[in-house]
Amino acid sequence: MDNAFLPFALPEIGQEEIDEVVDSMKSGWITTGPKAARFEKEFASYIGCKHAFAVNSATSGLHLALEAIGIGRGDKVITTPYTFTATSEVIRYLDADPIYCDVDERTCNMDVDLLEKVVAQAIQEHGAKVKAIMPVHFAGQACDMARIMDIARSNGLRVVEDAAHSLPTTFDGKMVGTIGDVTVFSFYATKTIATAEGGMVVTENDELAKRIKIMRLHGFNRDAWDRYNSPKAAWYYEIVAPGYKYNMPDMAAAMGIHQLAKCDAFAAKRTAMAHRYNEAFKHLEGVRIPHVERPSDRHAWHLYAIQMQSEWRDAFFDRMKDFGIGCSVHFIPLHLQPYWRDRYGFTPESFPRAFAAFKRELSLPIYTKMTDAEQTRVIEAFKSVHAEFAR
Ligand SMILES: *Cc1c(COP(=O)(O)O)cnc(C)c1O
Prior knowledge:
Elements: H1 15-27, H2 34-47, E1 51-55, H3 58-68, E2 76-79, H4 86-93, E3 97-100, H5 112-126, E4 130-134, H6 145-154, E5 158-162, E6 170-171, E7 174-175, E8 182-186, E9 199-203, H7 206-216, H8 224-229, H9 250-261, H10 263-281, E10 287-288, E11 304-308, H11 313-322, H12 338-344, H13 352-360, E12 361-364, H14 372-390
Parallel strand pairs: 2-3, 2-4, 4-5, 5-8
Antiparallel strand pairs: 1-9, 6-7, 8-9, 10-11, 11-12
Helix pairs in contact: 1-9, 2-9, 3-4, 3-7
């Protein structure tokens, strides 16, 4: 048996990606150009959405989304503490503040019953300063978007979805990316498709699309490709806003085109792996396999987030490492992080369910490059470690 250390995550990069990146390098057009445009077009068609903008990270994309919906100084955005700091930091980029809604302990997604109360209370306190809801589809399972859209619409709020984990994911049969006002995907190295660094901002709204397009690249009213290919006045451009530098280079889009083409196959493999883990672990005492709220919907399975007795978790992680298996923990909730904790005066009990889920959570490796034999190793290691704790 091969006992080399099994990393927690690895991208799957084929010869197609390599050839396409080399082709960009040889063509001389390495930054944003025809391949980024093609990636956007194919992504929009895959999702079934009107506009798609390739960016250099999901973080950039979330920033653009909030800027486009008009978030500014002193505004409030309702979001989840059970996420990576990027979801919240973009709110602070615009000098606005997050207001956190605690999660459902089993899915780690925003608790929508609680959301109704959090929104009502925020509006009572801050009035029209409350502008948006930012759900995160944890691990690749959609939040209850029907309730979230209802709550948003009845309170005049916009919805920006952090879909960094959720390609491809559906809610009630609808693709994530066609539901909220703006949705942002991530192609970071560990995500379900990867361009090293990268993201995609999608929307159905023409006005928001226009703003996102302008702000993505310096506030230009035309992008570089149009500029150099326009039959007239190739040198002419106008700056209409102090925009950002968030464009995706063609060398990244070159990877993205081929990763996207494999997205369904990748998803099928991840789903099969998740089911195999579920079967192996579902009867283990003191362990809770990931809760799936709507089995008829697609789950992207970016993470396989298992929960266990909280006293076990830290040592469990270490013992898995002894067995040569890389695990991780998602997430350390934001309200425990020094910046967020100190700025808003949080204690662990400010969001007790996010805190409890964090104490119990362990993420097992789930990625398409893993072989069946490697997954068997993970399962056997997990069962052995479990036996040490559960006696
Ligand atoms: C990875 C991640 C991001 C950030 O994505 P980048 O492309 O690295 O900027 C944002 N939110 C969540 C929930 C993530 O997991």
